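User: I'm preparing a small set of examples for a lab meeting where we compare how different chains pack in three dimensions. I only have the primary sequence for this one, and I'd like the structure in token form so I can line it up with the others. Please keep the answer compact; I'll paste it straight into my notes.
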Amino acid sequence: MGQGATAFLSGILVFQQLPFLPPLAWAWLGVAAAALAWRCPVLRFPAWFIGGFLWTLLHAHHILSAGLPVDLEGQDLLAEGVIAAVPEGGSRATRFEFDVERLSRGDEVLPVPGRIRLSWYDDAPALAAGERWRLKVRLKRPRGFANPGAFDYEGWLYRKRIRATGYVRADPLNGLVAEAGDYPLQRLRQRIGERIVAALPERELRGVVLALAIGDYQYIERAQWEVFRRTGTTHLVAISGMHVSMIAGLLFVAVRWAWARGGTGALRWPAPHAAAIAGMIGALGYAALAGFSVPTQRAVVMVAAVMTAILLRRGRALFHTFMTALLLVLLYDPLAVMDSGFWLSFGAVATILFGMSARVGAGGWWWRWGRLHVLITIGLAPALLVLFQQLPLGSPIANFIAVPWVSLAVPFVLLGTALLGPLPALGALILGLAEWMLSLLWPLLDAVAGAAWLQWSQHAPAGPALALALAGVVLLLAPRGLPGRWLGVLFLLPAVLVQPARPAPGEVWFTLLDVGQGLSAVVTTSEHVLVYDTGARFSPDFDAGSAVVLPYLRHRGLRSIDVLLVSHGDNDHVGGAAAVLREMPVGRIVASEAHRIPERPLQDCADGLSWEWDGVRFDVVPPPHGAGFRRNDASCVLFVEAGGARILLPGDIEARSEALLLRSGRDLGAQVLVAPHHGSRTSSTLPFVRAVAPRYVLFPVGYRNRWSFPHAQVVARYEEIGASLYGSAEHGAITVRISAAGDVEPPRLHRERWRRYWQDG
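Assistant: Understood. Below is the structure token output for the 761-residue chain.
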């Protein structure tokens, strides 16, 4: 079983690296592999590998066979279908998953795209899972930011089987077709969630109580998530495998005790058998409340295996149970490998099994408990660095107290939740007690989260460094008698000490990040970093600074910013600055509108600045002053020069500022140009285009942005002078490298270099 599960997982992982989807006819290879393995046992490992590969292929074809045709993007469509999950309320919109059953445009019936994700802005009505609605919508194909080190939103949509996203249009045709009838589990989860929220009005940690009860995280505030993240305790607010196993264990003990004292029932059926059935039902029910997340799937399978062994009166090796759970989870959903919870859940259990089993001479219970959390921190370190580029060193301290404390609160959460229906006052009282218990823990978590020395952020180890780190973890977790365990520390060092490549002296690397309809760029020399703009703030909980800029800097191994230059005060340029300033040291801030970055000393770019880093020259052109030169036209303009070749970042300047630059007599020539104002027709005038004469023009634009940037006339002007054009919406992050001799490499396009089969173009 162990080899089969490992081979099956390996086949899935290899498939996930493919840039394009293989033909479905490859599935016939599975039949041939099964026949060969049947006849020749030595081929079973490769047969399991092929099985994992082809099982994922079947799922991929099934998911990707549905979708939205390109010509329907941005069109007004009438969709009829069912709300498929609990809607998520937000400050600006209600978001929900919608299973489309009929799609039309006027009298034309269109192909159904499958499940879509919709946002209903402004005055959204109360929505419930299972309700059937008719909605006027505008849709687009799955699309997200594409940047090195950042979250893959397109992959997340694919993992959730969502084949289009969009929003609800205000229209008289919008209306409820039928009351909730489908998705009974989701309806139950929503009703329970509404009762919990009503029972805990204005309680600070009601979002945590809701998460522990039904796995709904929408009421957990961003600051609270930061505390959990920085303390390595995010698993505590999920209905994790630990909680499912704990509930199963409590039910097993309680039912066994009660059944043994129940008289004739115990004579007909042994108490352990009744307790085992109760434990399985409890685990399955609690996992259902969580929506069967990957950690709960693993826990349910392992609980079922243990309880089945009790029913059959047969022992079961823990390792065999673990590998059975791994295989069954992958058979149920091979795309589970795209979920960070899969790696953290199975990784934590594997660490416990390997690091705690078959040990002799151990100390008392408290020593074992503390050692457990140290081992988990070590065991999950490579996964945390790869997945999040961060390692909370305070995790053992926080979890040592938080795990048993939260585990003590969970039964009160479930008891209070169960009583909200028949005895609402008592249920609310018990839920309030659970919230109070959690609030007692919060000062400890807050203190650990606030200790900067307990936070470790760095680039994700890759290739040989990652392989050595995994080998080092295995050595460190091995039994004490194994010779050479100390080598594990040495094997971990490359993951920390081997840094990503940096420019040589005199070189400059420039990356235009994909932040949607906005601008952010990173300029690096051999020893310095400049960030030009930070993208937009889209909502109180989401901005380009935390979603794109910071992950990219960590991916590159950049731990500080020497200069943050904010061209002007529009949200799509400055919205992410607060997150960047909060999370990363910044040496100097240069901006044209000081009020957009309050409480931080900065230098006004109106003064005109010039400096040199590592043989690379930087020149900031002061924005014009006076009537008519505001906001866009007051952008700080930056020239970066290496070996005689130049990059020009003009911000959002428009025709008036372009004309002023031309009249200044300044040499505007540049090999690389970030198009002014995202390619708006109010900029990139023909005289300016001819004066700059760029070889490469980069457009920082959002996919299907409402202004249709870049404008066709602007594109035609740049094509007229023979420039090569690239857009962040089409190509993702765009990197240009200039050597010390002034040689400009062709742009490196992230969507081409890191393409996966689920991506749309």
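A couple of notes for your slides: The mean pLDDT is 88. Residues 420 and 427 are 5 Å apart (CA to CA).

User: Perfect, thanks.
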